[in-house]
Amino acid sequence: MTSAGLNPDDYKTAVSAATAAGDVTEEADVVVVGAGGAGMVAAITAADAGKSVIILESQAMGGGNSVRSTGGMNAAKTVYQDDNEFDEAAGVEKTLKTAAENYADNETITALAKTVQEQWDAYQAAPDGYFDSTELFELDTMIGGKGINDPELVKTLCENSADAIDWLDTIGASLHNVAQFGGASVKRIHRPVNDEGKTVAVGAYLVPILTQNVEDRGITVHYSTTANKILMSDGKAVGVQAEQKDGSTLTVNAKAVVLATGGFGANNAMVAEQNPSLDGYITTNAPGAQGQGIVMATAEDVGAATVDMDQIQLHPTVHVADDGSANLITEGLRGDGAILVNKEGQRFTDEVGTRDKVSAAENEQTDGQAWLIVDQSMYDDSAVIQGYVSKGWTVQGDTAADLAATMGVDADALSKTIEDWNQCVADENDPDFGRTSFNHQLEGTMYAILVQPGVHHTMGGLKIDSSAEVEKED
Ligand SMILES: Cc1cc2nc3c(=O)[nH]c(=O)nc-3n(C[C@H](O)[C@H](O)[C@H](O)COP(=O)(O)OP(=O)(O)OC[C@H]3O[C@@H](n4cnc5c(N)ncnc54)[C@H](O)[C@@H]3O)c2cc1C
Question: What pTM does this model have?
Answer without folding.
Answer: 0.86
